[in-house]
């Protein structure tokens, strides 16, 4: 199947993953954690914008076009508390999108669900793990899922892998996904395009919709 056939609006769902303040905003808990921990990766959040912030205009534009052509949008977010956070994340001090932090769990400005667009809440990397995402997608008649959001090698890739296992056609939008480290973003796109689906730009998908 070519891209135009894959992204027919009636059987496609765009999934927006973790575009929340804690993961996107330069003052969010995620960048604060890496700034404080200095885990050895090539991250300098003191002087550069969050990579996730840079993709916000592209995601906003892409979501707007998806709505215009009547493609479903599903919003996936992380909300944790001390009972649901993974033991590894707790040991590492990764208290992101904590349930009592209204600002941190909120979607980034300009990226809010509209109308009855469904919201799926997760506690692990994959949007499918222990959630109702598969049920939501099947109720929408989706055969193809188009992934946007953060971060490419973790929550986006985890969702893509499980989507592949659930027999969805998976498309990852290269310029609407991001990671704090560009090399990790590119490596994830390589894996996703080689094994777990198709990698395309938002422009290519918009052109296919037109």
Structural description of this entry:
By secondary structure, the chain is α/β, with parallel strands linked by helices. It has a single domain (about 5-20, about 50-85, about 110-210), classed as 3-Layer(aba) Sandwich (Rossmann fold). About 40% of the residues lie in helices and about 20% in strands. Helix 8 (about 150-165) packs parallel to helix 9 (about 180-195). About 40% of the residues are buried.
Number of helices: 10
Main sheet strand line-up: 3-2-1-4-5-6
Estimate the mean pLDDT confidence: 94
**Fraction in beta strands:** 15-25%
The CATH homologous superfamily: Isochorismatase-like
As a percent range, the share of helical residues equals 40-55%
Question: What labels describe this entry?
Answer:
globular; 6 strands; alpha/beta; 42% helix; single chain
Nutshell version of this structure?
The protein has helices spanning 3-6, 21-24, 29-37, 51-68, 87-92, 102-105, 133-139, 152-165, 182-196, 202-209, and strands spanning 12-17, 72-78, 119-122, 144-150, 169-178, 198-200. The chain is of the alpha/beta class and 210 residues long.
List strands and helices in order, with pairings.
Elements: H1 3-6, E1 12-17, H2 21-24, H3 29-37, H4 51-68, E2 72-78, H5 87-92, H6 102-105, E3 119-122, H7 133-139, E4 144-150, H8 152-165, E5 169-178, H9 182-196, E6 198-200, H10 202-209
Helix pairs in contact: 8-9
